[in-house]
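From the shared-data thread, chain only:
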Amino acid sequence: MNRFWNIKDNTLEINGVIAAESWWGDEVTPKVFKDELAQCKGDIKVNINSCGGDVFAAVEIYNALKAHDGKVSVFIDSLAASAASLIMCAGDEVVISQGGCVMIHNPATMAWGDSSEMEKAKNALEEIKESIMNIYVTKTGLSRNLLSEMMDDETWISAYKALSLGFADKVLDDETVQNKGTMFTRNEITKTERAVAQVIINKIKIKDEQQEKYRAYKEKVENLLTQ
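Structure, as tokens:
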């Protein structure tokens, strides 16, 4: 059953929970998605409407899309949240509807055991967060510190903010939805939106500089210890 692939226009649908395995028959799993993706030739379109799910399943789908031989156009119909925002970043072009949203946050897990097990879980989540930020940095060009703060805050990002921050490349206007007309591009957003984005970026400039000094100091100490 081709749940995600539309042979008519090479369109894949990510509509629902992203999971490593299917329990209810309606989850988006890497295996089924990749099987259907393999049948698509050339340029494809990926429609996303998902609250997210398993981060590793999402990364697997992300990598499959990045490896696809053809242009990948991603359209955010309404929501690309959590793990779904990682898949979104695989698009060579990401288009979001005016009413669409992106949400990013810190990874979470369930853990059981003593303090040692809790510490292991904490360390694992920190490393997973670093891996997630690798994808966001590649897509947006934003600093890791800014993205880390946004993830800490569980940040909801509207269409034009997604555009100004680099998560999206175009925003569909009402006319486009109805008549397939023109689109707003990142260069056409208002000066106000660009200013808002710049304020956010500048907010952690000092923190970036401090982090760079810390990395240099840490590297120096590590070099001394290995001599």
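Residues 115-140 form the longest helix (26 residues).
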